[in-house]
Design brief:
Elements (H helix, E strand, L loop, with lengths): L1 H7 L5 H28 L2 H6 E4 L1 H8 L5 E5 L6 H9 L4 E5 L7 H18 L3 E3 L4 H10 L3 E5 L10 E6 L2 E6 L1 H9 L3 E10 L2 E6 L11 H22 L32
Parallel strand pairs: 1-9, 2-5, 2-8, 3-4, 3-5
Antiparallel strand pairs: 6-7, 8-9
Length: 269
């Protein structure tokens, strides 16, 4: 985590690194605990702790009847935000990677988490590679709002392009771009910031303007890059909210030399 933070944010003091990583652990833990918050207070409980800004962007995007697709990174925690949207009457669905190949303990934990998250957002979770595109098309035609996290390791999917992210050549899935191409649904970024203990500010940005021209692979790389720009901006504003510190190298292209270069004199805590 220290190596990634130095590589991307280049904080000048060791105390600053400690503060960012400490808060990053807190943000990650709060995101995991949000599901338990729902179990006690219900979906409307999230409306009391999550202030949502930019709903007008989402409402305008939904006017064309093609649905809308929200995207973000592993940033700030989305579960409370999804619960707050569902409490306002938005019909949601999510697209996540399949966990079929994970160890059985992780699969068991994720099944329980999936069951609870579907109730938080009042909509289904679709698993990539299992007919998700067709099901997502149906959901968007119904005027639902989909969401996807785009900074995850691509795994074994073939829908991958190499694109620059946080100054490094990375391999990322272009599934979001492919879905937007097929549905012409508007694609909007969202980010969740912690403003005080138990309180969050969720921000929905305007739709990303895609480039329709050029060879398909080039266009997908260009459009995915446009989606990554607001993510990079959010990380620069609140580096402690990004949950991928320590896993950033899992996104790097195999040709990235930095992936083989450990940070010298790494301090252990």
């Amino acid at each position: 985590m220290r190596r990634d933070l130095r590589l991307v944010s280049k904080p000048s003091e060791e105390a600053q690194i400690d503060a960012i990583l400490e808060e990053s652990m807190e943000v990650t833990s709060c995101d995991e605990l949000d599901l338990f918050f729902y179990a006690r207070f219900g979906r409307r409980g999230f409306s009391r702790i999550v202030q949502v800004e930019g709903l007008k962007h989402l409402d305008v995007a939904l006017e064309d009847g093609r649905g809308a697709i929200l995207f973000s990174a592993h940033f700030g925690g989305a579960q409370g935000f999804l619960g707050a949207l569902a409490a306002r009457g938005y019909r949601l669905f999510g697209i996540v990677r399949s966990f079929d190949r994970d160890p059985w303990v992780q699969r068991l934990a994720f099944r329980w988490k999936t069951w609870l998250l579907e109730r938080v957002q009042n909509g289904p979770l679709l698993f990539a590679g299992q007919g998700a595109v067709g099901e997502a098309l149906r959901c968007l035609q119904e005027g639902r709002v989909g969401w996807v996290i785009i900074d995850a390791p691509p795994g074994k999917t073939r829908r991958v392009v190499e694109v620059e992210f946080l100054g490094q050549p990375c391999r990322l899935s272009y599934g979001l771009i492919e879905l937007a191409e097929a549905t012409r649904a508007p694609v909007l970024p969202f980010f969740v910031f912690y403003t005080a203990p138990h309180l969050r500010r969720a921000v929905i940005g305007p739709p990303v303007k895609f480039s329709p021209d050029g060879e398909p692979k080039t266009a997908r790389r260009k459009n995915l890059r446009r989606c990554l720009e607001p993510i990079e901006e959010a990380i620069s504003q609140a580096p402690s909210h990004w949950m991928m510190w320590g896993s950033f190298e899992s996104l790097w292209s195999p040709d990235t030399e930095a992936a083989e270069a450990p940070m010298p004199q790494e301090r252990r805590r």
